[in-house]
Amino acid sequence: MKLLHLDSSILGAHSVSRQLSSEIVAREITLHPGIEVIYHDLAADAALHLSGAHMAVRQGAALEDTSLGNDIAKGDAYVEELIAADIVVIGAPMYNFSIPTQLKAWIDRVAVAGKTFRYGADGPEGLLSQSKKLIIAAARGSVYAAGTPAAAYEHHDSYLKGLMSFLGITDITVIRAEGLAFSTEAKEASIKQALNEIAALAA
Ligand SMILES: Cc1cc2nc3c(=O)[nH]c(=O)nc-3n(C[C@H](O)[C@H](O)[C@H](O)COP(=O)(O)O)c2cc1C
Known about the structure:
Elements: E1 2-7, H1 16-31, E2 36-41, H2 52-58, H3 66-84, E3 87-93, H4 101-110, E4 117-120, E5 123-126, E6 133-139, H5 157-166, E7 171-177, H6 184-199
Parallel strand pairs: 1-2, 1-3, 3-6, 6-7
Antiparallel strand pairs: 4-5
Helix pairs in contact: 1-6
The structure holds flavin mononucleotide.
């Protein structure tokens, strides 16, 4: 089995999503001894933003720039890793109501028509295996509960879930720590609850 683990927080050792994603991976290793883990710290080593030059190469233009070539190879590897993974764990902080730009740069590389999705007569179809499991470790400063005015600003784990569903993943779990900016007590309680949910994750 293979597990793909991504982190994207810019807050290093202070990051809550990193703490949670690492606990999730430890739990999955316990549940699946011997599972192969591939890890990317996207904040430390992000892909370039998808550009016209990338798209031109996809359309068959000659590749003359070595750094662009290296970046395209990195994006191709992202796609292969995602296709091969049985379990995907994504550490996803909320920044400005959405995901970090480094994580979006990864998404822009793995959402590739003909590889991870396609459009047909019946509309879009995700091409990733439905046996794949995705666990999102979401962290955010405020609370965006359904039915509250703040819910309209939540483009964070709902966006990630929507995007990954579009690519075909149906088994999606969100472990969420929120209200982290409210108080020290609220932060500790939310992290504790998230850790309990992680401890209860089943195979
Ligand atoms: C640049 C930046 C932007 C943020 N934007 C939001 C936001 O829009 N909404 C929110 O609820 N919290 C926001 N926060 C708070 C983070 O969501 C919170 O610190 C969370 O712990 C981030 O996850 P991390 O600790 O893994 O980085 C922001 C934090 C940073 C550093």
